[in-house]
C-alpha cells in the first residue's frame, strides 16, 4: 500500500517498479493521489436483507466521534481510485497468493460467517472470502474504487453475499457484528500510511468476541546494510564525469538521493547483521495511541568489514487463528535474542518452526520480492566498519502532526566512536 501524492524523492533502484510508477504518472514513489470529494458512508450495493442506515442510531453502543476526514485523507483515498495501484497490488503474487492461501487455511472458521474487508479496493479479498463460504461480506472502501468493486461483485453474481459500502470504515454503519476482519493495510516500513488505525476502529466497532483478524500480527525489522553499487551510482559518479571533476555536485547529490527514505530491493548480501525487531503488532490488542510514536534502541555487531551505508527496514505479517491469538510476547523464541538482535536464519526457521503453521507474508531481503520492496535510510557518508564493530543507537517513528499519513523518522546512530543524527520524513 502507498498513498499521498505530489511528494517523492523519485529514486527507484528497481527498474520495473520505476516504469510501473511512471505509467501512473510522475514517477512517484508511492501510489499518488489528488483531491476527491469524499462522501462518507453511502452504500453502493443494493442488498435487501440488511438495512443500511447512515443516520444516528440510538441503539448503537457509545462511540467516540470518528476522526475528521482531512484534505490529506481525501487525497489519499483519491490515490486509490487509480487502476494502476490495484493492478500493482494484485499482480504482486507473493502478497495476493498469501492472502488467498490464508483465507483458505481459515476456511472452516470463515464458512457461514460474516466478514468485513477493511479497504476492499477492487473487492478481491472479499471475493476470496465469499469463495471460502462466508455468509456475508461487508466490503468497505472510501475510495471511488468501491464503484468498480461493486461492478466486479455483480459481474461475479456475488451481490447477494458481498455488500459494498463506499465510505470510511470510521463513518459507515452496519447493523450486526462480524466474525472476521480482513485487511491489507501494511505500508512501507509497515506503518507508513497509517491504515492500521482503521483496522483497529473496525475491530473495536464490530468484531465479535473470539473473532478472527487476518493478518493477526505484524513485525517491523531493521538491519544495517552495505550497498557500494548504489552509493557509487548516485554519489561517486560525480567525481569524474566524462573526465570532468564534478565533485562540486556531491553535496547536492547526497541530499537529493538520501534525504528521504528510499524504496528499493536489496538482497541478503547487503545486510551486515541479524535484524532487530523495531515493533511487533498484535492486531487483536494494539491500540491507536501505540501507533502515534514507536521507539526502539538497537545494538548491532557487524558480521563483516564493509562500508556501512545505512539501514534497511522490512516487515512480515502472520495469519494466525483467533484461538491462539498472539500476545505482544508472541515473537517465537527463535527470533528473540537477548538484545532483540535476531538472526536472519531465524526468520527463515520461523516459518518452518511455527507450531500453528500460520502463513507468513514476508518482505525480507532474502525472501521473494514484493511490491513493498525494502525501505532504505541511507547515510550521507558511509562509515567504514570492521568485523564485530558495534553499531548502536535509537529510532523513533512518529505520525506527522501535519498529516498523520506521513511518518517522521528520527534516527540516532554511533559507531567507531562517532555519533550521528538523521531526521527524515516519509511522505
Ligand atoms: C492497500 S489497498 C488494498 C485493496 C484490496 N483490499 C486488495 O488487497 O487488493 C487499501 C484500500 O483501503 C482503502 N482504505 C484505507 N483506509 C480506509 C478507511 N479508513 N476506510 C475505508 N477504506 C479505506 C483504500 O482506499 C484502499 O483502496
From TrEMBL:
<dbReference type="InterPro" id="IPR029063">
    <property type="entry name" value="SAM-dependent_MTases_sf"/>
</dbReference>
<dbReference type="GO" id="GO:0016274">
    <property type="term" value="F:protein-arginine N-methyltransferase activity"/>
</dbReference>
<comment type="function">
    <text>Arginine methyltransferase that can both catalyze the formation of omega-N monomethylarginine (MMA) and asymmetrical dimethylarginine (aDMA).</text>
</comment>
<feature type="domain" description="Protein arginine N-methyltransferase">
    <location>
        <begin position="217"/>
        <end position="321"/>
    </location>
</feature>
<dbReference type="GO" id="GO:0042054">
    <property type="term" value="F:histone methyltransferase activity"/>
</dbReference>
<dbReference type="Pfam" id="PF22528">
    <property type="entry name" value="PRMT_C"/>
</dbReference>
<feature type="compositionally biased region" description="Basic residues">
    <location>
        <begin position="26"/>
        <end position="51"/>
    </location>
</feature>
<dbReference type="InterPro" id="IPR025799">
    <property type="entry name" value="Arg_MeTrfase"/>
</dbReference>
<dbReference type="GO" id="GO:0032259">
    <property type="term" value="P:methylation"/>
</dbReference>
<feature type="domain" description="Protein arginine N-methyltransferase">
    <location>
        <begin position="357"/>
        <end position="415"/>
    </location>
</feature>
<keyword id="KW-0489">Methyltransferase</keyword>
<protein>
    <recommendedName>
        <fullName>Protein arginine N-methyltransferase domain-containing protein</fullName>
    </recommendedName>
</protein>
<dbReference type="InterPro" id="IPR055135">
    <property type="entry name" value="PRMT_dom"/>
</dbReference>
<dbReference type="Pfam" id="PF06325">
    <property type="entry name" value="PrmA"/>
</dbReference>
<keyword id="KW-0949">S-adenosyl-L-methionine</keyword>
<keyword id="KW-0808">Transferase</keyword>
<feature type="compositionally biased region" description="Polar residues">
    <location>
        <begin position="1"/>
        <end position="18"/>
    </location>
</feature>
<feature type="region of interest" description="Disordered">
    <location>
        <begin position="1"/>
        <end position="68"/>
    </location>
</feature>
Amino acid at each position: 500500500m502507498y498513498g499521498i501524492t505530489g511528494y517523492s524523492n523519485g529514486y527507484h533502484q528497481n527498474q520495473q517498479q520505476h516504469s510501473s510508477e511512471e505509467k501512473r504518472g510522475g514517477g512517484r514513489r508511492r501510489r499518488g493521489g489528488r483531491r476527491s470529494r469524499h462522501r462518507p458512508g453511502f452504500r453502493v450495493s443494493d442488498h435487501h436483507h440488511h438495512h443500511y442506515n447512515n443516520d444516528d442510531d440510538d441503539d448503537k453502543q457509545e462511540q467516540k466521534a470518528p476522526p475528521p476526514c482531512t484534505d490529506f485523507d481525501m487525497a489519499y483515498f483519491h490515490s486509490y481510485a487509480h487502476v494502476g495501484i490495484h493492478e500493482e497490488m494484485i499482480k504482486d503474487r507473493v502478497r495476493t497468493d498469501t492472502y488467498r492461501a490464508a483465507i483458505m487455511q481459515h476456511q472452516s472458521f470463515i464458512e457461514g460467517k460474516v466478514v468485513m474487508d477493511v479497504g476492499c479496493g477492487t473487492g478481491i479479498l472479499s471475493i476470496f472470502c465469499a469463495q471460502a463460504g462466508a455468509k456475508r461480506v461487508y466490503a468497505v472502501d472510501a475510495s471511488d474504487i468501491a464503484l468498480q468493486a461493486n461492478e466486479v461483485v455483480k459481474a461475479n453474481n456475488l451481490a447477494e453475499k458481498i455488500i459494498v459500502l463506499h465510505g470510511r470504515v470510521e463513518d459507515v454503519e452496519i447493523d450486526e457484528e462480524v466474525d472476521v476482519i480482513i485487511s491489507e493495510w501494511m505500508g512501507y516500513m509497515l506503518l507508513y500510511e497509517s491504515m492500521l488505525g482503521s483496522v483497529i476502529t473496525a475491530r473495536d466497532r464490530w468484531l465479535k468476541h473470539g473473532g478472527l483478524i487476518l493478518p493477526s500480527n505484524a513485525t517491523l525489522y531493521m538491519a544495517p546494510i552495505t550497498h557500494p553499487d548504489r552509493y557509487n551510482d548516485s554519489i561517486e559518479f560525480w567525481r569524474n564525469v566524462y573526465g570532468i571533476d564534478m565533485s562540486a555536485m556531491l553535496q547536492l547529490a547526497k541530499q537529493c538521493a538520501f534525504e528521504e527514505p528510499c524504496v528499493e530491493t536489496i538482497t541478503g548480501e547487503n545486510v551486515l547483521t541479524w535484524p532487530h525487531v523495531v515493533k511487533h503488532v498484535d492486531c487483536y490488542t494494539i491500540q491507536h495511541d501505540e501507533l502515534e510514536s514507536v521507539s526502539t534502541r538497537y545494538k548491532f555487531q557487524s558480521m563483516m568489514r564493509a562500508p556501512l551505508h545505512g539501514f534497511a527496514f522490512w516487515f512480515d505479517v502472520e495469519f494466525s487463528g483467533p484461538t491462539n491469538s498472539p500476545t505482544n510476547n508472541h515473537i517465537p523464541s527463535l527470533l528473540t535474542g537477548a538484545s532483540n538482535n535476531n538472526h536472519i536464519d531465524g526468520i527463515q526457521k520461523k516459518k518452518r518452526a511455527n507450531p500453528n503453521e500460520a502463513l507468513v507474508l514476508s518482505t525480507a531481503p532474502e525472501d521473494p520480492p514484493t511490491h513493498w520492496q525494502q525501505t532504505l535510510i541511507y547515510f550521507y557518508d558511509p562509515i567504514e566498519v570492521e568485523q564485530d564493530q558495534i553499531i548502536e543507537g535509537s529510532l523513533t517513528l512518529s505520525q506527522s502532526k501535519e498529516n498523520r499519513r506521513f511518518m517522521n523518522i528520527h534516527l540516532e546512530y554511533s559507531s567507531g566512536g562517532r555519533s550521528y543524527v538523521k531526521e527524515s520524513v516519509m511522505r
